[in-house]
Each structure stands twice: as structure tokens, then as C-alpha cells.
Amino acid sequence: MTRDVCIVGAGAAGAGAAYALRDTNSNVTILEKSRGVCGRAATRRKNGCRYDHGANYIKNHDQRTTQLIRDLGEDGLVDVEKPVWTFDGDGVISTGDARDQYKWSWTEGITQLAKRLLAQTDAAVERETQVAAIDHNPDTGYWSVVDATGTRRGPFDVVLLTPPAPQTAAILTETGWGNQCMVGLREAIGSVEYRTIRTIVLHYPFEREEPWYALVNTDKEHDIGWVAREECKDGHVPDGESLLVVQLSPEWSTEHYDDPLSEVAPDVADMVAALLDDDRLRDPDWVDDQGWRYALPNGVANREIIRRGEPNGLYFAGDWTVGEGRVHAALWSGIEAGERIANG
């Protein structure tokens, strides 16, 4: 029997779930609120550059991740060879933190992860569709999904919600389902807090050489949390240019989230120049930015509670279901949810 499955969100978790369902008797519809796919693993193009301004790479968490990345096709696959170094709240840089033997992206950007996963499926992706609520019909057992315009889609046998926990909790608040497990679901999912991250991109018309690919602040005492050299990825930055992806600390990001780019970019450039001891970096020739209010989970939802809806066709996936804000974590939570749907 063919089942109709609705996946809310085309990030790594949603794309992973669709991939897991590719050879099953499932008609998969993905509803994605933005114009692109892969969520915070985002790529942008500007002025001849291509840059991963959210999640910077996919780590080789385990052998299954390594195998899946290679199975998706090694054409255009980029392994960032230079290491990640560290710095502290005083701006003292230290050699490597020994993280991540492989750091993968693609010449066309990290969004290739979701694009390649979805290319192997028959899933229908409806972009710019923000889901506001889901409803359950107790007589038929089917689900329907209502978007922000009031348009209703369905019926579906299964709904999988993959947005960040606060957004998923908001959808559940508007959910018409009288099952007794709903109170527990809302509380468990709503309890997961997130860190806010704002990224500032700084471009320079000259090339810099460093022994590292990225720097990470390990004591959480600096306004900069992470700075990465996008030119270390093949095909991303033209020769003779430099592009820094600067992710600010959650505290700084929250305080300055809505400040105009024209106001914050000079301050961030000054911080980067001081950290890297290079006054030329105070004057980028162009800048860009992106913010994520729900960037990284600070906790994890109770696994037993969030699976209580599965017998009725309600599933959840995302980094907040496993408590690790990394692309591979979201990806495998989606794949495993897809496998449970297939076997349900």
C-alpha cells in the first residue's frame, strides 16, 4: 500500500528522511518555507564568490557518514585540508584542536548535500511554503497541513516535522489533535532552547596565507565564535582574493541581531583585524550577512516522549532530537526517522 508522507522542512533532516524513503511505497511531499534547501547548511553566491555562511562543512562523524557522502558522488567534493585552530577570550591563537579528519563541502557549496540527496528521490518540494499548523482527523486517521496563507494540503498518512524545536513547538500549539500525548510533546519540544548566531561575511581584494582553515573560540569568552577562510575550498573564491566567514558569539549575535549590516560590519572587521593582527582587514571591499535565531540547540528533547506520536503517524527529526548542532546529526536523525516511517 502506498502511503502519503508530508515532510516539513527541506534541511538536512528533511532531505535525509526523503532519501531514506526513496525506494519505499511512499509519495513524499516536502514543504519548505525558504527558496532553497539544506537549511542552515547554506550557500550563497556574490561577486564571483561562493560561500558556506551557515554550517561550514560536514565532518566525518563515522564510517556511515563517510560512505554516504562518497555515495552521493565525488565529483565536486571538497575536503578542506588545512586544520582548525583555536583562540581564547584574549585573542591568543593556538595550534589545532584535532577536530575532524575530513571537512567536506562541494565546489558548488554545502547545499549540495540536500540537492544530491533529493535528486535520488521522487519527492515533490514546494518552496516558499511556511507551515502554520497540522490537523488530525480521528475518523480517518489522516493528517492535513495548513500553511501560513490558510491553504490546506493532504490528506497524509504521515507528517514529519523537522524545523528547529521552537518553530516545531509553535506548529504543535496550533495543531488540532486531541490525543493525550500532545501536552507532553509540546512541553518536551518547547523546552529545547537555541543559541542565536549572526554571520558576517568580509571580502578582500587580496590574498592572505595562513596555516589554518578556521579558528574556533574554545572558552566562549570572545565576541567572535568562529572565523573561516572560504578560499580554502576549491572553487569558492577567485585566486588573489580572500573571504572570511565570521560567526559571532550567541551573546553578541542576540544583542546585535537586528542592527543594520552597515553599522555592525565595521565593528566586526575591527575585531577580526585585531584577532589576526592585520590592519588591512579593517577595510573589506564588500560585506554580507545572515542571521539564524534558532541556529544551534542547547539541549535535546526527550526521545521517549517525542516518539509517542509515531503510532499515529506524527514524527520528528532534526538536530534538537539528538542534541548536537552539527549537519551530520540532523542528517542521520532524518534518515533514521525515514527508516522508522518505512517500517511503521
UniProtKB/TrEMBL annotation:
Residue stretches in coiled coil: none
Domain Amine oxidase stretches: 104-341
Spans traversing the lipid bilayer: none
Origin superkingdom: Archaea
GO molecular function: oxidoreductase activity
PANTHER family: FAD/NAD(P)-BINDING OXIDOREDUCTASE FAMILY PROTEIN, FAD_NAD(P)-BINDING OXIDOREDUCTASE FAMILY PROTEIN
Protein name in UniProt: FAD-dependent oxidoreductase
Source lineage: Archaea, Methanobacteriati, Methanobacteriota, Stenosarchaea group, Halobacteria
